[in-house]
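Hi R.,

As promised on Friday, here is the backbone we talked about, encoded as structure tokens. Could you run it through your design pipeline when you get a chance and send me back a sequence?
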């Protein structure tokens, strides 16, 4: 797998905030190219965000994912449901991948792309690799368990037998804000519960 943007951590966010035009004209290498997302990409990420909101409604950490086939049709959707399913593997990506594989009646999805609101963890990157996905796009970085860029750089391990294109930063601000709001509300609720106890 090949992680795009690995040479310039601050670039994708800048591009995605619509400031690409004001980026230094000297920066015209492939990394910049790789951070230009299409309208279809944005639409797919918006579907993933819808899924993340469904997770939030159920009190789950708001992370959502969608899988598209080679023609851009949605073949799988999922949101994080680890708490309600009593399942440590029920991350949004795994839920969406399982649905997609069932839909295609194939455990390999070589033309598919997965869009997810948060940087995938090692488990999810592993699953996506087994599925032979063509492309992974994620929004916000996860400095705690991210395995594409932040903590581990699994896509950069050249010895792995499958190469998948990984792109980061699409609608990163929106997705990070969703997570921040969720944790802020949870902290407030916990504080409120403590004060009402006393
Ligand atoms: Zn995961």
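Update: got your reply. Pasting your designed sequence below so it's all in one thread:
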């Amino acid at each position: 797998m090949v992680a795009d943007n690995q040479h310039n951590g601050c670039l994708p966010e800048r591009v995605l905030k619509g400031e690409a035009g004001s980026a230094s004209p000297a920066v015209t290498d492939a990394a910049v190219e790789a951070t230009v997302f299409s309208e279809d990409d944005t639409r797919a990420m918006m579907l993933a965000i819808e899924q993340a909101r469904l997770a939030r409604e159920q009190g789950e950490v708001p992370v959502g994912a969608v899988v598209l086939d080679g023609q851009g049709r949605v073949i799988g959707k999922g949101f994080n449901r680890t708490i309600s399913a009593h399942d440590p593997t029920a991350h949004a990506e795994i839920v969406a991948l399982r649905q997609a594989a069932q839909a295609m009646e194939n455990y390999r999805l070589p033309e598919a792309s997965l869009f997810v609101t948060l940087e995938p963890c090692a488990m999810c990157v592993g699953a996506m690799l087994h599925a032979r996905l063509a492309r992974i796009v994620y929004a916000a970085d996860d400095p705690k368990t991210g395995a594409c860029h932040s903590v581990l750089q699994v896509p950069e391990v050249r010895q792995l037998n499958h190469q998948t294109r990984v792109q980061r930063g699409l609608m990163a601000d929106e997705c990070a804000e969703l997570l921040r709001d969720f944790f802020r509300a949870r902290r407030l609720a916990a504080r409120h519960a403590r004060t009402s106890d006393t």
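One thing I noticed while checking it: The chain has six helices and six strands.

Thanks again,
M.
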